[in-house]
């Protein structure tokens, strides 16, 4: 009897956990049970329109964006500067005072929140970038209002997003749901303005969109450290106030992290400190991997030769390092 009761209690606990899990995921993915359609143009139709537009002498660009906390706004502003396009902020009439609940309910109910302003001269634009933050793995509802408020036929629509970690693919079904008959392509998650040049080049829009350029991208040579050109621009980093320290460890033979650390120093004007292990790592790749493996498994804390006495004076500390042993972990996974 006791045994039976134990079984029942176990089943009830499992059922409650399963219900909580399902409920949590239903809340987390508010677009999950909506019926969504994609009647946007095919790749070949988009290609034809693209060729037609890019053959024009003057390509007129609009960068429209919605931003709740400013991240997408920064990207959109940089994009409009680089393309020479006009900037338009998509502003909902009602504030998101309780952004998580409101946005979740809007996406779940396929709402179209009213916007404050309209683009008066929309017919003049050939290329319309549409930027937004990822909300609940979907497109924020004001973006759907924007897309459905105009006749965007015959224009190239290029979505871009910012997010905590979600890729833009997660949002495309809710985006395309508002794109019947439209040419949508080149969507990209932008995690830093340094990525914009490379993206524009892939899109076939170099520097100023009025001069569509060739699509080939220069790959870094194999012997060079893999740090892309776009990361080497000298731009100020916004949002870093007070005194900044950039601490990094870079394995001497590659120097990738060192290069990135120096770029951050140039942009922030901060102090820089290279972490020097008391016992240097082998310069041979495999030997270094063996040492790293032991350190990982032993949760080691190898001594640092140049540890500063204090770092209290700093307000912001960047910490840079190479990822080690990812390949090894992969092998372990595939070997079960
Ligand atoms: C309501 C809400 C939902 C969010 N959902 C996601 C998400 O599903 N995936 C993700 O990676 N980030 C998510 N984020 C983080 C934002 O996408 C990210 O912070 C974005 O860069 C903010 O852009 P903004 O400053 O232009 O508003 C969410 C943020 C909010 C406020």
Query: Which CATH architecture of the largest domain?
Result: 3-Layer(aba) Sandwich
β-strand percent reads 5-15%
CATH class of the largest domain: Alpha Beta
Shape: globular
Output the radius of gyration.
25 Å
Layout of helices and strands:
Elements: H1 2-28, H2 43-54, E1 61-65, H3 71-83, E2 86-89, H4 99-108, E3 127-133, H5 141-148, E4 156-162, H6 169-176, E5 183-184, E6 188-189, H7 196-203, E7 244-248, H8 256-268, E8 271-274, H9 285-297, E9 316-320, H10 326-334
Bound molecules: flavin mononucleotide.
Describe the structure.
- There is one protein chain.
- The chain contains 10 helices and 9 strands.
- It is α/β, with parallel strands linked by helices.
- Strands 1, 2, 3, 4, 5 and 6 form a 6-stranded parallel beta sheet that branches. A 3-stranded parallel beta sheet has the order 8-7-9, covered by helices on one side.
- Strand 7, helix 8 and strand 8 form a beta-alpha-beta unit.
- The C terminus is likely disordered.
- The site of flavin mononucleotide has 20 residues, from helix 3 and helix 4.
């Amino acid at each position: 009897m006791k045994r039976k009761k134990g079984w029942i209690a176990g089943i009830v606990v499992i059922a409650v956990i399963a219900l909580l899990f399902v409920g949590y995921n239903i809340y987390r993915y508010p677009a999950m049970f909506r019926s969504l359609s994609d009647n946007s143009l095919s790749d070949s139709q988009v290609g034809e329109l693209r060729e037609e537009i890019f053959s024009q002498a003057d390509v007129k660009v609009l960068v429209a964006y919605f931003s709740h906390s400013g991240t997408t706004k920064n990207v959109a502003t940089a994009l409009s500067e680089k393309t020479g396009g006009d900037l338009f902020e998509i502003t909902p009439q009602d504030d998101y005072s309780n952004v998580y609940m409101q946005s979740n309910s809007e996406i779940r109910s396929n709402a179209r929140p009213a916007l404050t302003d309209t683009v008066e001269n929309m017919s003049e634009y050939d290329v319309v970038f549409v930027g937004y933050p990822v909300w609940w793995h979907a497109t924020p509802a004001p973006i759907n209002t924007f897309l459905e408020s105009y006749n965007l036929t015959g224009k190239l629509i290029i979505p871009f997003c910012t997010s905590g970690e979600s890729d833009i693919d997660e949002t495309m079904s809710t985006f395309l749901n508002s794109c019947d008959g439209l040419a949508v392509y080149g969507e990209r998650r932008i995690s830093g303005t340094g990525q914009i040049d490379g993206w524009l080049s892939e899109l076939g829009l170099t520097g100023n969109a009025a001069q569509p350029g060739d699509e080939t991208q220069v790959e870094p040579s194999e012997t060079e450290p893999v740090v892309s050109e776009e990361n080497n621009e000298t731009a100020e980093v916004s949002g870093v106030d007070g005194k900044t320290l950039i601490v990094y460890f870079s394995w001497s033979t590659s120097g990738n992290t060192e290069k990135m650390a120096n770029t951050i120093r140039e942009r922030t004007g901060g102090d820089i400190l290279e972490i020097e292990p008391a016992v240097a790592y082998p310069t041979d790749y495999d030997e270094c991997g063996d040492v790293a493996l032991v350190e990982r498994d032993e949760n080691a804390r190898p001594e640092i030769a140049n540890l500063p006495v204090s770092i209290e004076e700093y307000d912001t500390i960047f910490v840079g390092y190479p990822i080690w042993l990812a390949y090894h972990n992969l092998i372990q996974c595939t070997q079960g």
